[in-house]
Amino acid sequence: MSTGVCIVGAAESDLGVTGKTVLHLQTQAITRALADAGLRLADVDGLATNGVSRFSATQVAEHLGLRPQWTDSTFAGGSAFELYVGHAVQAIQAGQASVVVISYGSNQRSARSRTLAPYEAHTPEAQFEQPYGPLYPVSAYAMAAQLYLHTYGTARGRAGMTEVAVAAREWALANPRAYRYGAGPLDMDGSPLLSDPLRVADCCLVTDGGGAVVLTTAARARDLPGVPIEVLGYGEATTGTSIVGVGDLLRTGAVDSGRRAFAMAGLTPADVDSAQIYDSFTITVLLSLEALGLCDFGEAPDLVAARTLPLNTSGGGLSYCHPGQLGVLLLVEAVRRLRSTPDRTALVHGTGGILSTHGTVLLGRS
């Protein structure tokens, strides 16, 4: 099945330590994605982005001289860009826009704007967590990891998280764009403990970077020079903003977002040829693989160790790039892989906050 909407362009901005502004990185990503699509800025009438300010879409549009008739600046953390795909498909289907750009850019490493800090009382529930001094957000994911180890076995769970990090590094060694490209094998045992049981190597990078994808109708895509990638299905889910609010840490909202995406596409997890799974932490990948139905609960360590499913093939947020929000770059990698390999379907899944928001997108090459 198909939504009748395709991704026709995908590109990154400069990555790593760029010294560039957020708007510069946004501009790079958008103009490169449009060039990849064979389109111009003048063709864009829809824009979805965040991370610049409270008026992100307005600011980016003004910077580029655009006057879009549809915008979306929903902030949902790392899953926002998978959510934008669903929103953009709906807008294109409804005739609210004909060419939508989804973009992001961040200079958090150059600006030294990312810090590990104790929780702030963002929600009423946080008052019950803040006195214990957890680090945001790593301690929340560390609690999920501790529960995973307790439920499925310490050695098994720890080996699974290590396999996620090692596999990401191996993919990054083949990706010249990766921040850790050429850095050699991963020494997990030598990685300092950050928030038990998570080590530094279990945690995503802090880099500059950004990316963009361009969507339009399948009918228009046929007249463009590149290989169009169809949006087959999408789903989203929201749980809670705090550790208390999430509920079951081992059965995340990906259960629901994935189920909705597969139902829309008329596919099952067995139909997925490759997956780009948000890897803010190694435990995030194990939890997501299981919640999405790509394996049974407790079986993600075996799936990752078997390497039968191409996973986070750019190197992911652990070894390739993590500019605060990775979701758009997961889409970029999925498009590139579908264009350049025999894969027919790809799953992209974004996670935001403390296992708070979830967006699943299924893509296919016709």
UniProtKB/TrEMBL annotation:
Lineage: Bacteria, Bacillati, Actinomycetota, Actinomycetes, Micromonosporales
Pfam families: Thiolase_C_1
Source superkingdom: Bacteria
InterPro entries: Thiolase, Thiolase-like, Thiolase_C_2
Protein name according to UniProt: Thiolase
Domain spans labelled Thiolase C-terminal: 235-365
GO molecular function, one term: acyltransferase activity, transferring groups other than amino-acyl groups
